[in-house]
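note to self: dont lose this again. the chain is below, predicted strucutre after it. 202 aa total, dont forget to put it in the shared folder this time
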Amino acid sequence: MKLPALLQFRVLKTALKSLVTPAYTTPFPREPFEAIPQFRGRPRYHADECIGCGACAEVCPAKCIDVKDETTPGLPVRRLVQHLDSCICCGQCERYCPTGKGIQLSHEFDFVGFTPADFEESVTKELLLCEGCGCVLAPADQIRWLAKRLGPLAFTNPTVMLTSLKDLAVVSEGIKPEAPADRGQHLTIQCPRCRRKTSLAV
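---
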């Protein structure tokens, strides 16, 4: 005859052993929890390292990163907004970040909030517009990062060269969207379509 579970020796042994041994679980939240180095926690943007390219949004499987270009009059900007309530902490954004430091996974695991804004993290970058047609080219930090990677080869592309020289305050701002294409506009910040028109102008 099978004894009840409470009278079985194996069950009694396990119960008595658990009374005198410490708990296997951590005492969180009474004490802070230290995650292992390989732990994939909350992604964090680093504004100084992020170039605003949007690669993180392209590879995010949960589609929790929005790229919003605002070209209203004034300073055009790009906002990268991450919705942490949809994030699965897979690490693809960190893996495919061109700089390797623009967005990184932290060891934070307790996503706590009461409003949707509590689960949003964003970074804002200045946008470059074509001086010919006014379309969006890329974030200024992305072009500067590219110029540093290219070194002397950056001077082979007028857009990359002029963007990098703006930090030296030797390039004047002057967007003329309605100006006809001519060779005098060759040294301006242009999109590929306007660059072609300028290069083929006689």
